[in-house]
Amino acid sequence: MRRYLAVFLIDWQNQFVYRLNFLLWRLRNILRLLMTFFLWKGIYQTGSAVFGFSQPQMFSYILLVLLVQSIILSAPSADNIGGEIGSGDLSNYLVKPISYLKYWFVRDLSSKLLNVICALIEIFLLWLIFRPELVLNFSVSSLIGFLLICLVSVPAYYFLSLLTRFVSFWNPENTWGLSFLIIIFIETLAGSIFPLDILPAWGKLAVQFTPFPYLIYYPAAIFLGKITGFYLLRILLQAFIWMLILFFFARLVWIKGLRVYGAEGK
Amino acid sequence: MKNFRVWYLYSINSFQRTLTNRFITLVFVVSKFIRIAIFLFFLNLLLQGVSSLAGYTREQIIFFYLSFNLIDTGSQFLFRNVYSFRPLIVSGDLDLILLKPINPLIRVLLGGMDIMDGIMLLIILAVVVYFGITSLSVPVFFWLGYFLLIINSIFISAAFHIFVLGFGVVTTSVDHLILIYRDLTSLMRIPVDVYIEPLRSLLTFVIPLGVMYTFPPKFLIGLLSWQLIVLSFILSVVFVLISLVFWSRCLRSYQSASS
Amino acid sequence: MAEIQVKDLKKTFRVQQKDPGFIGSVKSLFNRQYQDINAVAGVSFEINQSELVGFIGPNGAGKTTTLKMLAGLLYPTSGEVSVLGFTPWDRKPEFQKQFSLVMGQKNQLWWDLPAMESFILNKEIYEIPDAKFKSNLDQLVDLLDVRPLLKTQVRKLSLGQRMKMELIAALLHTPRILFLDEPTIGLDVVMQKKMRDFIKEYNRSFHSTIILTSHYMEDVKDLCRRVIIIDNGKILFDGLLSDIVNKFSKHKTITVVFDRPVEKRELLKLAEIREFNFPRAVLTVDRVSVSAVAGKLLQDFPVADLNIEEPVIEDIIREVFTNHRPS
Q1: Structural domain range at position A165
Q2: ipTM
């Protein structure tokens, strides 16, 4: 256990060395948030309620998405694992008494911590500047629900991105092909741009059969208190099942991948 | 001209590279089409909820988006190599390119054309034309003007990419910059008129994305005044010139990295 | 019992074939062709504690592949390996804590932080007790003379300094076995010597078993008493370095310097001429007749200087390879 704490600390330090990169990354996040903001502001010019969402409700959702993205989606492992497998640097870790997958998960956690702190600051500043009207009716139970789904979705996303990166075992030159597809799905089906409420009933049902809405939309919706009671429990259960499925496949592919791993890349 | 021949050879090599990775390449193309389809679906949903968006009908909004994809894919097709620029600088390989007796931009900007994007471009072109003909009643010669403006937009896009390359030479932050550019362009999936001021003017006159993406389809619909048409062409020429000057300035102050 | 036991180890890779050119690329889309490469084709040996063994062979011979299987990085196609009683590719932590793998030109240190941070991380990974960590660290740092560099970012160190830090990181947990894969590659001559001296010293003081692969003869000559020659995935020779010389070369060389011009023809009657560059000539002579030939030279020819030498190991090894490669 101590060794993973050491990994956490060393990664934390490392993040500050790459200051410029980090700041640009945060800038991009804010920019994307602003763009979604202006997109919806433009759309709301034409009417005061789109899809049953008032403007304040929409903006609350968007700000929350920024926070949720920091918690669940920030994962430097996604950028690194493919490269390490492809270049053969993975060998360095395989000979050591440490689990490569746990190692990167801990590094991700370290990065998430920094990202969440920044997201909170940014949300506050944005709110200060634009003073959008917000609608926030959350309660203790919605916060607990939020915590629970985050607890499940964080590892779920980790396993998902691992699966996309493990392609490198078979295709070392092209490490981010599959993740491109996943990124697109997350852009659209996870609720980053538009809350999934706007989908027709069949759409809302269909999307629950993918792992994506549990990453952004449901955490945000639960936080905002839109999902409660049995519905909440059902969503939590579904999210948990997805996490198990992804865990199972990630482990499977990892073991298969190691067999194929040529440990080359000199 | 030598430049074209070299460009041709770079492209053939680049095409070959993509073909060796058939699975991944296929995944990329499919993903892009899925993305377009999903956004079309979203637009459709959106326009069922509201009567019109900034005065445009549903068909027109969809056409704006299809046109967006045409320009976007065209840029991707031609300028893909910009995404591979950073490793060149970091490793110092850029020096090898600069030593050759040929304009480095040919390699650095145009040298990595992606055949998959090319195929995608043709498909989108077909869709654009088909949709334009069936859903919007447009006189034939308007298409000529439309495509001239599209080519104009590609030049503006080139200028943007050259700016990014220039920055990359000086700061090596190419990846972030180009992704910020892509994020900004994604705003143009809907006509720039939708956005409120001052953003609208910012996107039209300062960062000419509005000119690039909104003007061509607007022309086709018949809503672009001749003054703005002339402005588009002048703007692209000026913009390209500025970018080239910027690029050569950056090159001059460039120093190669150590190992 | 031997620390390392390898029995009939085999490793085969499947490599994709592609015809050159554009047409070839399109073809490869539809019909993939594979070729089987026997990187390791049945290798057996045993290594005892504290031995310093060198694996030599040309590029692609299978030495690095064998090493990687010993370290547990690769799964063999067939065969048995036992290292310290463990099967390496099970990757048990108890096993991993007892060895170290250093690959030349590949770093395990965190690039943007001082080396010290990576050392502390390794301390936790290998669960090294505080006191031991401190004493090992001090010893290694002084041995390699890098104390003032501990707080410098790794990216700012020179290649030689970085290699030293890599070594320290690899040795902090006093591994019983040290695998070194091309440790001197890319280093300048002075650094190479320092590296070799260090390895020798480490083997002497800590009695750890050291296996190194290299294609630099200097490494092998300097460090290893025992060498294993591998080519095409098979062992060509496993024994003492001195034995190679005796087994594989039946010749010695005589280098002569003449102080007056001589007839090449006359010289040829005595021995085979390898080089003739007046006033210097290098002759190849049967081991048996060396003294006789030397005597005759001194008698019949105007010799200013004469030298009898063992053939250079590089040449012997080259001879071994050329004799055993498929034509």
Answers
A1: 2-260
A2: 0.78
